[in-house]
Amino acid sequence: MELPRPSADESEVSRRLSVRIQGEIAQTGPIPFARFMELGLYAPGLGYYAGGKAKFGAAGDFITAPEAYPLFGRCLARTAAEALAGAGAADILEAGAGSGKLAAVLLNELAALGSLPSRYYILELSASLRERQATTLKRQAPLHADRVHWLDRLPAPGFRGLVLANEVLDALPVERFHVAADGVRRLQVTWREDRFDWSDTPAPAAMRERVAPLQLPPGYTSEVGFAAEAWVRSVGERLAAGAILLIDYGFPRAEYYHPDRAGGTLMCHYRHRAHADPLILVGLQDITAHVDFSALAAAGAESGLELLGYTSQAAFLLASGLEALARESDPNHVRAHLALTEQIKKLTLPHEMGELYKVIAFGRGIREPLKAFALQDRRARL
Ligand SMILES: C[S@@+](CC[C@H](N)C(=O)[O-])C[C@H]1O[C@@H](n2cnc3c(N)ncnc32)[C@H](O)[C@@H]1O
Questions:
Q1: How far is CA 87 from the centre of its chain?
Q2: Distance from Cα 94 to the centre of ligand 1, integer Å
Q3: What is the pLDDT of residues 19-46, one digit of tens each?
Q4: In this structure, are residues 71 and 144 in contact, taking their beta carbons and an 8 Å threshold?
Q5: Between helices 101-112 and 127-140, what is the axis angle to 10°?
Q6: Ligand 1 atom closest to 165 (CA)
Q7: Of all atoms in ligand 1, which is nearest to the CA of residue 129?
Q8: Per-residue pLDDT tens for 80-107?
Q9: DSSP alpha helix (H) spans, the chain
Q10: Pairing relation of β-strands 286-288 and 267-270?
Q11: Model-level pTM?
């Protein structure tokens, strides 16, 4: 596929990051793919999420549900209100809040529902995104912006409330492996003939133990999201009471490592083109992998969390009041009505975001089941 050419400024940032990664390879030898992805996305000042690129929306590289479709946040607000009430807790923590649009919609909707959190924390690693979030909140939720506080790491244990993350876990570094005739190999990145290239090494024990039971055929390449699992464990350890709601694209383990997915799930996004080569456009493109929801469920259990629900985004939104919100729209206001219908289609149709995107919820001390999982409970598939 023909990819758009980066501007001169972009090329310069990419060159500097490339030199930084080459330096690390020169010192240590080939680096694990997870380290390459970490630097590509988060190297201070140079990585994709650490720099000032637009990223989300029409001028960026991809769109996400809360960026494009406010109905998503309005539905989520109903589940947020329920989870906060269920835990007798007051705060929300959103990880990786993008442009801040979800935070704005949630705060406005929670105010309308009479369930405003005392504080809305945003855990954001990128300084440029923090600025963008503050601007969005001042413009789109001016009455509630003073409740928002930024964190640069997870809070200390004892947090009571709701932790939310939309499309964050897919952006955490993944390890890649390859099944060779003589066993599982860990994929690494090296510098060869003026470009980054793949190399491999025998897989470490944790990777072998994860991959061996899957009984994958030689030639199979895929990912393991150890960092996403560790993230769920860390959040679980910090949650004293409340819920964790994670929305992302992915599958239960049996589907994740399906024979049809023999090349893995890695995807790169650059100016709305999707392709599968993470070794080019270093620092300029988003790199993501799908989420193994069975692994997240196991990580949650390890930190003593209860699995409250797992379902598709479509079933989650429909059970969170999507239809009722749609009925509020007046068909006589043709343009607004059509725009709303379009949002519903994008969010729920199986070939759009409805089926690939899943929602998983964990809880501690939540007494009542969350209504959002009443329509379809897929926990048994994990
Ligand atoms: C694909 S974007 C999604 C943004 C937003 N949630 C949305 O749905 O539009 C991924 C976000 O995750 C953030 N992120 C990555 N690692 C993180 C971590 N360890 N803690 C918090 N946020 C993180 C990135 O900075 C980025 O804002």
A1: 24
A2: 9
A3: 999 999 999 999 999 999 999 999 998 9
A4: no
A5: 40
A6: 6
A7: 27
A8: 999 988 777 689 999 999 999 999 999 9
A9: 8-28, 33-42, 65-68, 70-87, 101-112, 127-140, 205-211, 226-238, 253-256, 293-302, 313-318, 322-327, 334-348
A10: antiparallel
A11: 0.95
